[in-house]
Design brief:
Shape: globular
Number of helices: 12
Strand content: under 5%
Radius of gyration: 18 Å
Distance between the termini: 5 Å
Number of strands: 0
Structural class: mainly alpha
Helix content: over 70%
Largest sheet: none
Order of helices and strands: HHHHHHHHHHHH
Length: about 230
């Protein structure tokens, strides 16, 4: 379990360059920019906490499916398959475009789910900030889908939830920094950071492939320890 927590934190933190590029504008547009520093910071922490809670719950859902896969004896095959897709997405532009289209598939449904966001933005209270984070955790995002795919290979519901909770917390510092730095996080800077995302995706994909193949030694299923 501990290893899955560390893996989630590392995946979230190292891959959060994607969050800066894609969700940075959302972080900058959060209400309450004119509040006192203490209240401003608390609001942003609540927002990121809300996202982490949603990711944890989503981790529970994929954990149920992952547990069924594990019991059926297909966990290693799943790990290799998901890892291979991640590597191809990072290295092959055509695959990346197809994955991007799939990423936007839930947009129509989620658009209705996220309708209350406008009212919450106008409210801007502490509770509203938490709810904004909860709802924003449902926004279509390839990076989150990659994390969920990784959690799917965990084999148990607690591991999947722990991984996604740590993943959410790991993405928090970058978005919090964007909120605090404000306009210093320019569009060009975010775009340059986002180009690093395929590197992190390929590294995680390779790890999942090696883990699924069970090559022994340091490449054995490291994350399966309690």
């Amino acid at each position: 379990m501990t290893n899955w927590i560390w893996a989630g934190l590392a995946f979230g933190f190292l891959g959060s360059v994607h969050c800066v590029g894609m969700c940075g504008p959302l972080a900058l547009s959060l209400p309450g920019a004119d509040r006192l520093p203490g209240r401003f910071l608390v609001d942003r922490v609540l927002y990121n906490l809300g996202r982490a809670v949603t990711y944890t719950l989503l981790g529970g859902l994929v954990g149920v499916a992952g547990r069924a896969v594990s019991l059926a004896g297909f966990q290693q095959v799943l790990s290799v398959g998901i890892g291979s897709l991640m590597v191809l997405t990072a290295l092959v532009p055509w695959v990346s475009r197809q994955v991007g289209r799939l990423e936007q598939a839930p947009s129509a449904f989620l658009g209705r789910v996220l309708t209350p966001l406008g009212q919450l933005y106008r409210s801007g209270g502490a509770g509203a900030m938490l709810l904004i984070g909860l709802l924003n955790g449902l926004l279509p995002c390839g990076f989150v889908y990659a994390a969920l795919a990784t959690a799917l290979t965990a084999g148990t519901v607690p591991r999947s939830m722990a991984f996604m909770a740590a993943f959410g917390l790991g993405t928090g510092p970058s978005l919090l920094a964007v909120s605090l730095l404000g306009r210093l996080a320019s569009t060009g800077w975010r775009a340059r950071l986002q180009r690093l995302m395929p590197v992190g995706l390929a590294v995680v994909g390779l790890f999942l492939i090696l883990r699924g193949l069970g090559l022994g030694g340091m490449w054995s299923p490291l994350l399966d320890s309690p």
